[in-house]
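A note from the maintainers: we've had questions about how concatenated examples are separated. There is no special marker in the raw files; a new sequence line simply starts the next protein. For clarity in this README we add a label.
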Amino acid sequence: MNTAHQLARVLGAKRSGRQWVCKCPAHEDASPSLIFWQGHSAVRFKCYAGCDPRDILDILRRRGVFGDDPAQAPNPRKSNPRKSPPPTNGDEERARARKLALVERICRESVHIAGTPGQLYLYKRGIDIALVPDCGGLRWHPKCPWGDGATGCIIGRYSDTLTGEPRGIWRRPINGENPRALGPVGGCVVRLWPDDEVTTSLVIGEGVETVLAASLRITRRGTLLQPAWAAELR
């Protein structure tokens, strides 16, 4: 059986307490988003970008750096993570399709944020979302998939900056945990103000809550920083 320590040496992962951190092989990772650790009977994986642990394990097995047979355990002297073959198109497509299916399911199950615990959460943080057209297009999911369980989340939809095509989502749990993106977000924004409100100027910043707070409180030359979109800067 493979151990987390063996896998860490092959992948060049950095240790953080009882866990290791590295770039996730199941998606194009600009910065390390995968953690793994030694469980009671197997290595456990968690990708903060939302990749399914089954996809991660499948890709590692296909690369030949992870297996169930002790004889196939990775050998750090013979393995070079830089020379590991990339996942096949089929692997990437399957992982991408599964993630997009989850994105669409969450969007279908969510409701408009008005009158929900999500609106109250933002209001208590000094953000009156009712002052933004259509509440910024934000939605509420009372049992949004989150890690190994579910929790109430505010949902924002990313769309392509130029074409407006829907892409991934922004999830803000109201239980105190940090927000996370799910699905493709590169080159995308959360359109907190609709396109028809964008005429002579547009504010783009990082982070949905940061942009909302700034747009409702800060003025420049006597004018609030509106309209505004939130981007995922990497």
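[label: protein 2]
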Amino acid sequence: MSSKITSNTILEQLPGELRRKVATNLEPKWLSRGQRLTLGSEVLFPLSAVVSLIDTSGDGLTVEAAFVGYEGMLSLGPVRNIKAEVQVAGESLSMSRAAYEDFRDNRDFRRLTDSYSDRLLGLAFQSSVCLVSHRSEQRMATCLLAMMDRSGQDRLEMTHEYLAALLGVTRPTVTIAARVLQTQGLIHYRYGHVAIEDTAGLEQAACPCLAEIRQGLMHH
């Protein structure tokens, strides 16, 4: 467990003695792609998995509010209209809600978890601004790179439905955005599979939000 705990940024930053205590309250948990997570009784610290937090409006429109990978944690209880869905299968560490609340009494643990929660909320707000400020192909480039950063993979399984939620657009708009990036030789998209062919070129095509998202990954 001690080797795995350092694969999550929050857990890695815990002071040594506290990290050892936390490790005794963690259990490995595999997350499968497409799995819907109910987080009321546990807190998850992803290692190689990536989880989306998806908001659903009253009229049925789905928009991804944020996604969480090795840099963070999932501590949400049941929240109206918010669902957590695994987008990239992989490992995570699970802690009971009771143990998490006990560790929250520790100043270092609370500081690190609160800091991440603040950054996640900030990225969710930024996503809302991005939705109305940047073109769909720019947002697609940014989201693909952010997902690659978290998963370590340049071959991603992403359905039309998920990309529509990711970008907050309709499926026909997803087709158009993907075609723009594919015509430029930046990606190859076919039947729910996205291959990033030119990372540097995709970075040039991305919207300015990419720098902020990556800063969130590096902000320890």
